[in-house]
Design brief:
This protein has seven helices and ten strands. By secondary structure, the protein is of the alpha+beta class. β5 and β6 form a beta hairpin.
């Protein structure tokens, strides 16, 4: 009986893991859209899809978009929350030999998940509640990310009132034609987008749990030829983390150092320091006499 169970498990696992080609990074993401909170309306659902920048490839049968079920909100800790527990998984490949170094280390060079929250009101009209996006974490492991959302509003004044009435009674309001408009401009795609005249308002947030796995032959290789590739990937990931998080700690330290440098320069130029240095020189001369 135990031998039969062992053979069955061995047939499921096989003798060795699936290998990837050399100099190729395999990224596996298993995630879950947990809930949404602080959105207006009721009967919420979330539409999501994956946007992979240039250089990333996937299987032809990979599905990049999906939708959760509709859920009524429930007050949880004084916050209106809708729970989904919608799973998703993606498997992508990145060829490190064909990509430029500055493109790979850029935060915009990693895949990104866009979310769009919608609701159905009392009149049965579907309205847009908010847009948001999440960059894939560059560190493998388990992550919990809170995606803050916003939505476009009317031009202001009477136009905003008309837009809100249309949104309530007709289900028609300001929306984005291209959801990738949310993402940062520039980066690997070399696009410049102006959002200067766009009026928006903050809405709610979407909670996402995601598990990231990185697989690359350079990670386990101990040869000298493969070490630079592994080291380069580690340094690229580290720099991407710093750029993605804007490195607030480094910014504060640099500001402190600059303020300290200016203070030292001001003290050196102050007349009080010159007077003290003159008095110290006079005292030393008297002692020598």
């Amino acid at each position: 009986m135990y031998k039969r169970q062992r053979d069955y498990l061995a047939s499921l696992v096989t003798d060795q893991f699936e290998r990837v080609p050399d100099n190729v990074l395999r990224l596996v993401a298993h995630g879950e859209i947990v809930s949404s909170a602080n959105f207006s309306g009721d009967n919420h659902h979330v539409e999501y899809f994956l946007d992979a920048p240039t250089g990333w490839t996937s299987d032809p049968c990979q599905v990049f978009f999906g939708c959760t079920h509709s859920c009524k909100t429930k007050e949880l800790r004084r916050v209106e929350t809708a729970h989904y527990s919608q799973p998703f998984n993606y498997q992508l490949y990145y060829d490190m030999t064909k990509a430029k170094k500055e493109e790979f280390i850029s935060p915009h060079g990693w895949p990104r998940v866009y979310v769009h929250v919608l609701s159905k009101n009392f009149y049965g009209k579907t309205s847009s509640e908010g847009y948001g996006y999440m960059d894939f974490p560059v560190n493998p492991g388990q992550h919990q990310i809170k995606v803050n959302c916003w939505r476009p509003v009317g031009p202001g004044g009477y136009g905003t009132i008309v837009a809100d009435m249309r949104r309530m009674f007709l289900g028609y309001g300001p929306q984005l034609d291209d959801i990738t408009y949310l993402g940062p401009s520039g980066g690997q795609e070399k696009k410049k987008v102006s959002r200067y005249f766009m009026r928006t308002e903050s809405t709610g947030s979407v909670l996402i749990n995601i598990n990231i796995i990185h697989q690359c032959n350079d990670f386990k290789s101990t040869t000298e030829t493969a070490f630079p590739s592994k080291r380069r990937l580690q340094l690229s990931a580290q720099k991407a983390r710093m750029l993605a998080k804007n490195d607030v700690t480094t910014t504060v330290i640099d500001a402190y150092r600059q303020a300290r440098r200016r203070m030292q320069q001001a003290r050196e130029k102050s007349p009080m320091k010159a007077l003290l240095s003159t008095q110290e020189t006079t005292t030393i001369d008297k002692k020598n006499e």
